[in-house]
Design goal:
A: six-stranded mixed β-barrel; 15 helices; 10 strands; B: 239 residues; four-stranded antiparallel beta sheet
């Protein structure tokens, strides 16, 4: 029989039992819907986080952290208290001969303090940076200006504040620029206000920016930096620069064996790679969980197909008597199973995409995040492929049972 | 020319070690264009015989030649082809696809044939017309009366222009009037279109439409006689 008529016959077979067919594919629909949703929402979350990273750390920026390459959460904690990065490293990196592709070096001093203005207080993080932070961290004030090189060199007592800090300390006040806030007993003049960033992963809203020199001298009181951030002239030079930086700091720290490194490097690409790999693993895990429901769905299909074969024994006998071969019958029932599951897959794809789209609209509306929805083509093809495969795998046994029937016994069946 | 040659045919059913002789030492030939009725009480083996002759079941001893060739020389696929192209079946229970139209039911054997697709519609329509159901062509099978259903089944058996039509108690589920109409159509197919017909029945009245009656008893041929006062159809169903 021509495949066209095999398909027609199979579709007719399914149409005769519409509600049963619908119930049978429910398992597949749910499975594929979950897979599509997990993939679409996973991709949305990944895009969001990657976007945040891109928006925060420039692609030409490399962060130098104290301590060994962190291998786990405890290593990460340790970084805060490591003191290996000092002014001499900044000086070494600033020498053009050491790392030719560097266009800027910025030490970073980070801490937490209570900030006061009049009777208002607010507990915030302070970031000691230099004038390059505008380029490296995209810290461009919406009002006022950023610090100058002279102010950094001259231990100036100037501050740029985050939007939340402004709201907390200057509620209802128009004049903020030029006002003085107090941190650890020292007055800082506000010269700029940072734009509102929203509740992203990295937020400048709750921080106060000061020159790193001032921060080291008056706030942290320590001789070392939490980070040194450098900028490379082009993205293409980042790998080369990483090697140069390693050599420079090893020289500066008298390290001969790279295993003894007391610092580590991180670039935007590294951070994005790490986030992507974590998100991919998580998505894969969730997809695997959802896939279990597909297997359950497949068993359901097999069950119903077996019932259908028994119920249609007489029809099978008749078709054989009229000239159908074993393979005609096999193909008919196999096609019924595959069409059924593929249809379930298709419904699942539409449903999953629809729900993901609604979810992303709701997230954008209520969580004020820049969540993007993109149709998961990969997931759609995977879903359609997997659901058809399930039809094939779980349909083969019932179809073979059907094909094996002797026409005479099948015709006699009551 | 002999369409069917059965020599010493036997069939033993083996039901979990319990053996039943359904057919024993059955000999007969059926010529092209003959109309033969096979009669016998229930359990006499007449249905088993028809299933063996119709290649729906296997025999356990003897030989069976169909159109001059030993059936054992055919493979499964060829046997399906013979059933499709050389044989037509009419069953007591009609065996139509209830939700399909009359035309689609009649087309069913064509789906498995090698006839070109563009001829299907015409062939099916001609067969429906031949059994006088042109006004029911697009009705679903379940909407028809018993007699009409059996006429659809006859049209279906006819559509591939088979050598032999096997009819297994075709009037068994019908009232006498519809039954008579059906048997008369079958007779007309034999007399006017030349189809060989093998009819299974337990009713002498119906069997007398045939020209020859083979009687079975306990799986053996009891008698094989010519019908002297053959009934001839009176209505003009076949066009």
């Amino acid at each position: 029989m021509q495949i066209k008529y095999s398909i027609k016959t199979a579709v007719n077979g399914l149409r005769t039992h519409k509600s049963r067919s619908a119930l049978t594919i429910l398992g597949i629909v749910i499975g594929i819907t979950s897979i599509i949703m997990v993939m679409a929402l996973g991709a949305g979350a990944q895009n969001l986080i990657l976007g945040e990273i891109q928006g925060t750390i420039g692609s030409k920026v490399i962060e130098i952290r104290p301590g060994k390459e962190p291998k786990g959460p405890t290593d990460m904690m340790g970084i805060m208290f490591l003191d290996s990065l000092k002014q001499k490293d900044v000086d070494a990196l600033s020498k053009k001969a050491n790392v030719p592709s560097l266009t800027g070096v910025m030490p970073l001093v980070v801490g937490s303090e209570t900030i006061t203005y009049d009777s208002e207080t607010y507990s915030a993080s302070y970031y000691g940076v230099n004038q390059l932070a505008t380029r490296m961290y995209n810290m461009i004030p919406v009002a006022g200006r950023f610090m100058t090189e002279e102010e950094v060199k001259g231990f100036a007592d100037v501050a740029i504040i985050g939007n939340k800090v402004r709201e907390e300390l200057f509620a209802g006040k128009d004049k903020v620029l030029g006002e003085k806030i107090r941190i650890k007993g020292k007055n800082f003049r506000i010269i700029g206000i940072l734009p509102e960033k929203g509740s992203g992963m990295v937020s400048f809203d709750t921080i106060v920016i000061v020159p790193y020199t001032t921060a080291q001298q008056y706030l942290s009181g320590k001789k070392y930096f939490q980070h040194i951030v450098v900028e490379v002239d082009s993205e293409a030079n980042v790998p080369r620069a990483i090697e140069d930086i390693k050599t420079t700091i090893r020289d500066s720290h008298n390290i001969t064996n790279p295993e003894d490194d007391d610092f580590s490097l991180g670039s935007q690409a590294d951070a994005m790679k790490m986030v992507s790999s974590v998100m991919d693993t998580l998505t894969l895990f969730l997809v695997a969980v959802a896939a279990i429901s597909l297997i359950v769905g497949g068993v359901g299909i097999m069950n119903i197909m077996l019932v259908s074969v028994t119920e249609r024994t007489k029809e099978i006998g008749l078709r054989k008597a009229l000239g159908a071969t074993d393979s005609d019958i096999l193909i008919q029932f196999l096609l019924e199973a595959v069409i059924l599951t593929a249809l379930g897959g298709l419904i699942g794809i539409i449903l999953g995409s629809g729900l993901s789209l609604i979810t992303s609209v709701l997230i954008n509306k209520f969580a004020a995040l820049n969540w993007t929805f993109s149709f998961p083509w990969g997931g759609a093809f995977l879903g359609l492929g997997v659901s058809s495969l399930i039809g094939l795998v779980f349909g083969i046994y019932p179809a073979r049972q059907a094909a094996k029937k002797s026409p005479m016994e099948a015709l006699r069946y009551e | 020319m002999n369409v069917i040659e059965a020599k010493n045919l036997g069939k033993v059913y083996d039901n979990e070690g319990v053996k039943t002789n359904a057919l024993r030492e059955v000999f007969f030939d059926i010529k092209k264009g003959e109309f033969v009725a096979i009669m016998g009480q229930s359990g006499s083996g007449k249905s088993t015989l028809l299933q063996i002759l119709g290649l729906l079941d296997d025999y356990t001893s003897g030989t069976y030649h169909f159109l001059g060739k030993n059936i054992k020389d055919y493979n499964q696929k060829e046997i399906a082809q013979i059933r499709n192209q050389k044989m037509g079946f009419v069953f007591q229970a009609f065996n139509l696809l209830a939700r399909e139209t009359v035309l689609n039911n009649v087309k069913l054997p064509l789906l498995y044939s090698d006839k070109p697709e563009q001829e299907w519609e015409e062939l099916a329509k001609a067969a429906v017309v031949a059994v006088g159901l042109e006004h029911r062509m697009h009705h679903e099978a379940k909407q028809l009366s018993g007699g009409e259903k059996q006429r659809v089944a006859i049209a279906r058996a006819l559509v591939n222009n088979p050598e032999v039509i096997f009819a297994d108690e075709p009037t068994g589920n019908l009232d006498s009037k519809s039954g008579q109409a059906v048997i008369e159509i079958i007779q007309k197919l034999n007399r006017e279109l030349g189809h060989t017909v093998i009819l299974i029945t337990h009713e002498t009245y119906t069997a007398e439409y045939a020209e020859r009656i083979i009687r079975l008893h306990d799986g053996q041929v009891e008698s094989d006689t010519k019908v002297n006062n053959r009934r001839i159809h009176s209505h003009d169903f076949v066009k």
